[in-house]
Amino acid sequence: MRKFDHVGIPTSVIQENENYMEGAKLFVTDYANSPNKIEWLRFEADSEFPELIQTTAHIAYQVEDLQAEMEGKTVLIEPFSPKEGLTIAFVVEEGAPIELMQVTAV
How many domains are there within the chain? Predict the structure, then answer.
């Protein structure tokens, strides 16, 4: 079962309270500070994120079984762990990027 988590919107405009993710070459805001759960994403020109993620808004869902949710879908970014207790992946559904987030106990 999926539970809505946030929406990520690519932008070229500098946002207040951006955090820089050096390895991803990406500036990102914390959606936890947004009443509408908006995460702004500003990519550097040489970011290796797929073009679809850099140009199209994504919806993020918390899921119980990441592998099961990915089955049969086009994978944009294979599962990785940006922090302890969280594994995420990006797939394509209905032509849009979808972020799948599996949270585990730490």
Answer: 1
